[in-house]
Write a structure and sequence with these properties.
Blueprint: H1 3-16, E1 20-21, H2 22-29, H3 33-45, E2 50-52, E3 55-57, H4 72-75, H5 80-91, E4 99-102, E5 121-124, H6 127-136, E6 140-142, E7 147-149, E8 154-156, E9 169-174, E10 178-180, E11 183-186, H7 189-199, E12 202-208, E13 220-223, E14 230-234, H8 239-247, E15 251-255, H9 257-266
Parallel strand pairs: 4-5, 4-9, 5-6, 9-12, 12-14, 14-15
Antiparallel strand pairs: 1-3, 2-3, 7-8, 10-11, 11-13
Length: about 270
Amino acid sequence: MHENERHRVILSAVEAKPFVSVAEMVEMTESSEATIRRDIATLHMQKKLRRVRGGAESVAPPAVIGLAGRPFSVNLSKNARQKRAIGRAAVALVEDGESIIINGGTTTFQMVHPLATRRCQVFTNSFPIAEHLLRQTKNTVVLPGGTIYREQNIILSPFDNDVTRNFYARCMFMGCQGIAPIGIMEPDPLVIQSEQKLIGQADKVVILADSTKFEKRSSLILCPLAQVDTVITDDRVTDAHAAMLESAGVTLIVAPAGADEEEADAG
């Protein structure tokens, strides 16, 4: 990640939260600790943030606390070819006329292009997904109420009495921070609260995750693997990770990223 992009990610993080640790910035930017400390020093000198012990804080604390994790715009370019293949494999599970839930994320966003051939009822908390489906497809789109988190481009509500409880879906498609034997992991408590509500409204839960997610961890567990019906990932998944899913009774679908390249070239 280039310096300007790192600075944009760091400033976005400190503007969204009262304090961001060096470790969090390292994870967000996939940079070394030494690089992050230099970035913090530079931005502190420019008076764009305040350097504090262990991290940085905003010069002007936010009115609404942001979410943990990298911004949508940064994640969108990560493993893009694998995500496109995964998105296409996910849409292959969808039939015309079905009601589905698509949780916000950069991997689930890749479902929007193949969904142009479907006419479904789609519940999503993602602005980019909703906008594309409204402009480019014939799908019906339902959005929840709640607070808009600009960096992740999603709507989340801490309340039980929102429209979520009135929507039924055959499948819920969602991404995640990490996949481990203990379960599906996410970085933020509010994200988990919202996703747990959505999981309760669907017959099946389908996780869309590129193979790097099997190596990532978070301190927060969304649900055990027993609650997951299917995981769709790319062809770099290891035998050990495939065996982990099989032992938990989770169906594994492998989407070859090479097929995505061939189709793009053909188009």
